[in-house]
Fold this protein.
Amino acid sequence: MTPNNEQAITSADKTFFQLRNDIVEGVIPSGCKLSETELSTKYEVSRAVVREAINRLATCHLVERKANVGARVVALSPEGLVQLYQVREALEGMAARLAARYMSDGEIAAMQGLLDSHFNKVKGGESYYQEAGDVDFHYRIVTGSKNSHLISVLIDGLYHLVRMYRVQLGMAGPRVTTAFDEHRHIVNAIANRDEELAEILMRRHILYSKNNIEKKLNHA
Amino acid sequence: MTPNNEQAITSADKTFFQLRNDIVEGVIPSGCKLSETELSTKYEVSRAVVREAINRLATCHLVERKANVGARVVALSPEGLVQLYQVREALEGMAARLAARYMSDGEIAAMQGLLDSHFNKVKGGESYYQEAGDVDFHYRIVTGSKNSHLISVLIDGLYHLVRMYRVQLGMAGPRVTTAFDEHRHIVNAIANRDEELAEILMRRHILYSKNNIEKKLNHA
DNA sequence: TTTTCTCATAATGTCGACAATATAGGCTTT
DNA sequence: AAAGCCTATATTGTCGACATTATGAGAAAA
């Protein structure tokens, strides 16, 4: 799953996390209307809490809100997926560039070690680690950029949408070993402090990933 | 001012716009604590609407919220400005690329006309049009990308922070004619449907702009 | 039968009150 | 006098009730 280092303080936090998970996992289906009263009875909290949770979901682009009408879970579409990956390409490309500039030698070494361990596990046939490893890799690059805007937009926002597409469109997909090679090349560029190359490789990595998903969509 | 095509439906909308403007313009100073009770009496609305407004400000990164403590207006810093422009470079670069791909011939022609009229007005000495023209130009590129994520992150989010830095650090600045040339080159690339060049030029344009601001900050 | 208007209903928006939490100031203790 | 604890107070978090708005069913008119 997603590494959950965010912890719920208030009741609204908890409700937000639960709702977000239910939406990403498809328990609450795409396009579904979110009734405040209904959810408040279901989750056993007041409407104010549900309202705040829904507002936060809206900032993640997981739901869309209309004044005096209500909120609906975002509709998944091929165009939406393309747009999502266009933004990922821009932001994560920059994140890789900044990671090459700002990550400490220790952080880079840790990331290299991570790749090794994931590679061994995947080689041993544990397909679970493919997804988890990919997620972990991208998280480290983004946080390595030390850019608070990049971190919040990607980790608090877009990544949940990415996961939603993956889960609901059944993206377990191959592309395992090739993706690993791409990860390895990116980390090498970062280790060499080659900002330009790191950005280019990350952008191509995401572009390939998008093409792969699009191909599946069209075949289905 | 900012072209305000967003209209307030609910009371929370109105309060949000007022608060946002007061923060950007510095009426509520950077770093200031936002008391819910205080603001609710000042703006003559209930605490619930102030709360919702503050939450929305938090999603714009104009205030920072801590559970059980409250919200403070974001602190402006040289590092924050650098990070802001790093993200702008990535996102607006991609926006220019997509604008070259998706903008209609009519939209491009309109943008060229806009540049002409702004050039004439600035040549006539109306310095107000420098800022307004720059804002308008960047808005058109972003909306021209037809990418809803780019549009919302930039226009609903980062641009208000950009304006806040401009206003409060006194960025009226020269760089008028050179910026105009850069705008012209970018539009030409878009008109030629040269995605690669449009992105590169936009990124350099924003990079120059950042360097210019940094220079001023260091001199002050 | 189709269209339009009206109204009932159910949802969202707003409000004031209460509960839970953080913080500052004073008090005790060493 | 300094440090730590504790209480008073003010702020945020949560709640249920009321106000306002959108929407669909049904009646009336063409």
Observations:
- Chain A has two domains: 11-73, 78-219.
